[in-house]
């Protein structure tokens, strides 16, 4: 049973109901319900959910490739080619929801990832029916490297959710 994050879920559903690009940043300390919220939101939706590893660039590329290829064992040769595949999927005008949980792990394994995402937002995704969610537990990373003024992703988010423990 899902309890305690109804207002956040309602906001995500409202964003999802539009036919335009949406970008939500969800962050907060560990064990406050971020992943549970994302999983509840993604129920009954065509979506791509990747939980990043505290591992290497290659391990994260393989894992995200499997998600994007829907377990068809396709491993893209780079994150650029992986995001190009997402661009191609968007040409069909189907709505795509891409959620990357523990985003700081991915970004630490491959620092250019935020710039690559920024490029795809600006050149393709912003005019498409896509919903991007980046989620993380490292508060300072999310505030500085995703939401901060010097971040390549600055100014592109539609909403941010700073989640705290509720009594």
DSSP, total strands:
5
Tally of contiguous helical segments: 7
**Structural class of the secondary elements?**
alpha/beta
Oligomer: single chain
Outline type: globular
The string of secondary-structure elements, in order, is HEHEHHEHHEHE
Q: Give the strand order of the largest sheet, numbering strands 1, 2, ... along the chain.
A: 2-3-4-1-5
Describe this structure in words.
The chain has 167 residues and is an alpha/beta fold. The protein contains 7 helices and 5 strands. It has helices at residues 6-16, 34-42, 57-68, 79-90, 103-109, 113-123, 139-146, and strands at residues 22-28, 47-51, 96-101, 130-136, 159-163. The chain has a 5-stranded parallel β-sheet with strand order 2-3-4-1-5, sandwiched between helices. Helix 1 packs across helix 2, helix 3 (57-68) runs parallel beside helix 4 and helix 4 runs parallel beside helix 6.
Reconstruct the topology from this structure:
Blueprint: H1 6-16, E1 22-28, H2 34-42, E2 47-51, H3 57-68, H4 79-90, E3 96-101, H5 103-109, H6 113-123, E4 130-136, H7 139-146, E5 159-163
Parallel strand pairs: 1-4, 1-5, 2-3, 3-4
């Amino acid at each position: 049973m899902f309890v305690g994050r109804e207002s956040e879920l309602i906001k995500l559903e409202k964003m999802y109901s539009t036919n335009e690009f949406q970008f939500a940043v969800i962050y907060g300390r560990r064990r406050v319900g971020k992943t549970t919220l994302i999983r509840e939101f993604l129920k009954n939706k065509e979506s791509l959910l990747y939980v990043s590893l505290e591992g290497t660039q290659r391990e994260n590329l393989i894992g995200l490739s499997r998600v994007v290829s829907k377990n068809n064992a396709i491993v893209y040769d780079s994150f650029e080619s992986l995001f190009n595949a997402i661009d191609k999927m968007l040409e069909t005008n189907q709505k795509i929801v891409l959620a990357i949980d523990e985003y700081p792990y991915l970004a630490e394994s491959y620092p250019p990832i935020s710039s690559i995402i920024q490029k795809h937002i600006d050149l393709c995704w912003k005019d498409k029916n896509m919903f991007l969610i980046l989620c993380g537990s490292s508060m300072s990373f999310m505030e500085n490297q995703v939401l901060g003024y010097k971040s390549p992703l600055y100014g592109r988010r539609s909403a941010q959710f700073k989640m705290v423990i509720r009594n």
